[in-house]
Design brief:
Blueprint lengths: L1 H5 L3 H31 L3 H12 L7 H4 L2
Length: 68
């Protein structure tokens, strides 16, 4: 992003910031899942509950996919 700032490419800055924010969100989501997985302690019943929860998540497509 430094180069985009240097050349004042505001469209690139906006796009790159979106990717950074998306990555932060995905890493947070992954940490939450990993924490829940650790809490199961390998218990099959809890793993099945977690699997069910994860299976019910709704994918939200990026805005670019919804505009096509």
């Amino acid at each position: 992003m430094d180069i985009a700032h240097e050349v004042k490419d505001y469209a690139a800055i906006s796009m790159l910031q979106w990717f950074v924010n998306e990555q932060i969100e995905e890493e947070s989501s992954f940490r939450d899942i990993l924490d829940k997985l650790k809490l199961t302690g390998g218990d099959v019943n809890y793993l099945m509950v977690l699997d069910g929860e994860l299976g019910q998540r709704v994918r939200t497509p990026p805005q670019s996919e919804t505009n096509e």
